[in-house]
């Protein structure tokens, strides 16, 4: 058997173990970013002046710090404050904080995209701020949220490779273990690139299908 083909076959189990960790990281970071990002966007859009200033400052500070620096600050900073944290959890928290700042801006943009006439109409029939948000704004915002969310998903998936720096055995680190033994970096990195491509392309196509299914031309989503 060709040596390179043998290397590919023998490397697949370890790379797939790393892929599982990468997927777990991606899902948890997305959940963290979505929940906190939605809260931040709601606060920045509908909160009082203090909440708006705090959420705006949070976003500016977090978006100005490189992801790797943010990850290392969480990993090394929390133990100095007396909180022990596993590398995997530090990766979720550090990259999740970064994701929340960008998710907040995506949510905020979708909230602002809803016609003010619809909001005025909701108020005119006696709906308050919160009912208007949950029954009028949010359902429509979700439709326009999907395309930028697909973009953000791809970014978060690739950013999970930064967890390599703090010892998480995700896809890239598993690849480095193999390279250290076999020393064929080109083959291993090509396999890693192919796995990332499959994960990115597959999910973004799925999200595109969801966007198409939810699309209502002229209401909350433009025809494409």
Automatic annotation (TrEMBL):
What residue ranges are annotated as transmembrane? Answer: 20-43, 55-78, 186-207
List the record's Gene Ontology CC terms alphabetically. Answer: ATP-binding cassette (ABC) transporter complex
Spell out the subcellular localization from the entry: Cell membrane
Sequence ranges assigned to domain ABC transmembrane type-1 in this UniProt record: 19-207
Report how it sits in the membrane.
Answer: Multi-pass membrane protein
Q: Name one GO biological process term.
A: amino acid transport
Would the keyword Ribosomal protein be found if you checked this record's keyword annotation?
no
User: Keyword annotations for this protein?
Assistant: Amino-acid transport, Cell membrane, Membrane, Transmembrane, Transmembrane helix, Transport
Q: Which InterPro entries match?
A: AA_ABC_transptr_permease_3TM, ArtM/GltK/GlnP/TcyL/YhdX-like, MetI-like, MetI-like_sf
GO MF, one term, reads:
transmembrane transporter activity
- At the top level, the lineage of the source is Bacteria
Under the heading CDD domains, the entry gives: TM_PBP2 (cd06261)
This protein's major location comes to membrane
Gene3D superfamilies referenced in this protein's UniProt entry, alphabetically:
MetI-like
Question: SUPFAM superfamilies per the record?
Answer: MetI-like
Q: Which PROSITE patterns match?
A: ABC_TM1
Q: Which family does the similarity line name? A: Belongs to the binding-protein-dependent transport system permease family.
Q: What is this protein called?
A: Amino acid ABC transporter permease
Organism from which the protein derives: Halonatronomonas betaini
């Amino acid at each position: 058997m060709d040596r390179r083909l043998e290397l590919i076959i023998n490397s697949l189990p370890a790379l797939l173990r790393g892929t599982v960790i990468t997927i777990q990281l991606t899902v948890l970071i997305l959940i963290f970013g979505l929940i906190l990002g939605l809260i931040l966007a709601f606060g920045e859009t509908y909160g009082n002046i203090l909440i708006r200033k705090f959420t705006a400052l949070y976003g500016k500070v977090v978006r100005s710090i490189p992801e790797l620096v943010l990850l290392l600050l969480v990993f090394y900073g929390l133990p100095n404050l007396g909180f022990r944290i596993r590398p995997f959890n530090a990766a979720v928290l550090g990259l999740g904080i970064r994701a929340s700042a960008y998710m907040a801006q995506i949510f905020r943009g979708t909230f602002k995209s809803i016609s003010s006439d619809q909001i005025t109409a909701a108020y005119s029939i006696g709906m308050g701020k919160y009912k208007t948000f949950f029954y009028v704004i949010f359902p429509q915002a979700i439709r326009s949220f999907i395309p930028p969310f697909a973009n953000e998903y791809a970014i978060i998936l690739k950013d999970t490779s930064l967890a390599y720096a703090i010892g998480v055995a995700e896809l890239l680190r598993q690849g480095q273990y193999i390279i250290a033994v076999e020393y064929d970096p080109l083959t291993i990195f090509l396999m890693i690139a192919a796995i990332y491509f499959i994960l990115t392309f597959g999910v973004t196509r799925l999200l595109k299908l969801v966007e198409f299914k939810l699309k209502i031309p002229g209401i909350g989503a433009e025809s494409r």
